[in-house]
Amino acid sequence: MYAPADVSEERAAVLATAAPWASDTASAAPASLVSAVLEEYGAITRRALLPHLEHGEPRRYLYGPAGDYPRRSGRMLRSSLLIASARAFGADLESALNTAVALELIHNAFLVHDDVEDEGLERRGRPTLNVLHGTPIAVNAGDALAILSLRPLLDNRITLGPRVALRLLEEVERTVRESIEGQALELGWRNDNAIGLRDEDYLRLVLRKTCSYTTIFPVRAGALIGTRDGLDLDVLTRFGFFLGAAFQIQDDLLNLVGDHARYGKELDGDIWEGKRSLMMIRLFQCATPAELEQLAEALRPSRAGRTAEQVAWIRERMLAYDCFEYARQVAHGLAGAAQHEFERCFAQLPDTRDKRFLADLARWVLARD
Amino acid sequence: MYAPADVSEERAAVLATAAPWASDTASAAPASLVSAVLEEYGAITRRALLPHLEHGEPRRYLYGPAGDYPRRSGRMLRSSLLIASARAFGADLESALNTAVALELIHNAFLVHDDVEDEGLERRGRPTLNVLHGTPIAVNAGDALAILSLRPLLDNRITLGPRVALRLLEEVERTVRESIEGQALELGWRNDNAIGLRDEDYLRLVLRKTCSYTTIFPVRAGALIGTRDGLDLDVLTRFGFFLGAAFQIQDDLLNLVGDHARYGKELDGDIWEGKRSLMMIRLFQCATPAELEQLAEALRPSRAGRTAEQVAWIRERMLAYDCFEYARQVAHGLAGAAQHEFERCFAQLPDTRDKRFLADLARWVLARD
């Protein structure tokens, strides 16, 4: 595992830094730089990615479905973060591109299998692959996306040499494994209908399931490419963790209070799925014993067994107990901690646009809502 | 793609060699050497494999289920074939073991996802993971098995050096991708309720779905390890293809005419699943138009929509048209072609126990029923 093993200690540090910093988030400046870089690096990555999905056979039952999510408009946060980290550490864009492509393929593989496992209905504004093609073809398409990520990673031996290529594969192996472990934790919570969870459990989950591949890997891999494996990558892990956790909480908030057209997933989908978001866990903590019993009842069946009344009631209870506001505050605290870690890790690097992009990300994460 | 692109031409060659050779299969000698080697190499591989699954967390919802199939008694054909090929080409066992472990992990990952996609009920004499734990946990456990295969493949950089390790990863990438493409072909046939298939379609399917990782990869990877990437591996592909296709046809025959206790899957499971086995395709070719219509009707719904009467009727029609005997003959022809290719590829190698194991495999495949 990565450095922040004792999540409860991190949590205290986060809340301590939250208040003074959070008030500063109204500034519009970071959004424009971050958006510009996401658009630029995202477009370059997508251009390099799509050929991996365009020429394979069979088309209709494999490469067509496998190429569907990557062609839908995604944020391309992960690949952009990786490229910016590599460039901030002195690499050129070209040398980071294979790994950026691989990361987006892995991300899409996760999305496809997550949607199967959660019986998700919408993804990036359209029906999920499992809805469009059924479970068998969706599972197989996810497998294709995962193995396709290996090709650009092997191409790294040409651009980066065999030693760095193999080091990156080691990072990928650990990252993907941890994400799958995180997914298993979450599936276990749902299977057990867990209602005794605490904030620390949530943070431990997102560390593995989300942060590992969304933020920690991109920053570490970028530094590895930029320094040609010349840096102790563990110093970067906390920045990635704080940033990724803030991002995930904000993403879950958008699911419940966001604008459907911009969010691209069904609103309240997380409640329908019985997801243990930070808001849900806060509700577990605030609820009366009678409410907790009613909650357990409502969350016990699988998605299809929940009623619209139950979903509306859970949402209303979250509002009544200020669960959204609470989650917003934790996200702000985490973003502030990410900012703090950023200064510590990247202070020595020259002042470039990529460094400023990394510096602005924490505030951009919060500004999304 | 590998060498045998024009499968129909191969098919003619196979049938031409079938007759004289097939009569020689009653000999009991090969079975004992093959069984002994499978037992020996299988045990060594399993001992090296299980630690990858024993220490991970979470246990109950990930590493427990992921370790289930590998702990059930499998034949360990793939790993044994790889080790024997490596040793026949001059390597020691130790240098092939990481790749053998990776291959068994990949094989088990395929089994888990195949069972999800086929709604399979039994595997190696026990309920499938999807039956035991549901689809979400089974899909995630399959993902874990797949990524766990990367670790021993990366360990190859210590035992074999970075260049050979990366070459093996290239072989793995192509192999896994082709298997997934084969699986997509098969899912497509079921989705389209295809009934106009021919023997060539079947051979093209098993080339990708089965042979690529069951026989072609083990022989190629073994030679790569044994010669330290000093051989044009394509000369070995036809041996792997013929052997793997004979193996798959025989396996499908055992599903329909075998002994349940030894086979470990539900008998007639392939008919329940609507699988386009060679026997099913032969039935398509022999059936009257009225029967073909009835067949299409029976195969149209998913597994749950088929009746025991329909399954029994399909089985009875297969018997009436000698479809089992036909498939047996094709398997014999393929095994004969494998034997022929073996002489061509391995004649120059010293006479070792591993070479004799490889020589005996084709007859062993047929003797299994």
The CATH topology of chain A comes to Farnesyl Diphosphate Synthase
Count of extended strands of chain A: 2
Count, helices of chain A: 19
CATH class of chain A: Mainly Alpha
Distance between the termini of chain A: 32 Å
Count of all domains of chain A: 1
Summing up helix and strand content along with how strands pair, one would put the structural category of chain A as: mainly alpha
Q: For the CA atoms, what is the radius of gyration of chain A? A: 20 Å
In brief, what are we looking at here?
Two copies of one chain form a homodimer. The first copy, chain A, has 369 residues and is an all-alpha fold.
Features:
homodimer, mainly alpha, Farnesyl Diphosphate Synthase, 19 helices, 2 strands, 76% helix
Blueprint (SSEs and pairs):
The structure is a homodimer of 369-residue chains.
Chain A: H1 7-22, H2 29-49, H3 51-54, H4 59-71, H5 77-88, H6 93-118, E1 122-123, E2 126-127, H7 129-133, H8 135-148, H9 150-159, H10 162-191, H11 199-227, H12 237-257, H13 260-263, H14 269-273, H15 278-286, H16 289-299, H17 308-320, H18 323-346, H19 353-367
Antiparallel strand pairs in A: 1-2
Helix pairs in contact in A: 1-18, 2-5, 2-6, 2-19, 4-8, 5-6, 5-11, 5-19, 6-8, 6-9, 6-10, 6-11, 9-10, 10-11, 11-12, 12-18, 12-19, 15-18, 18-19
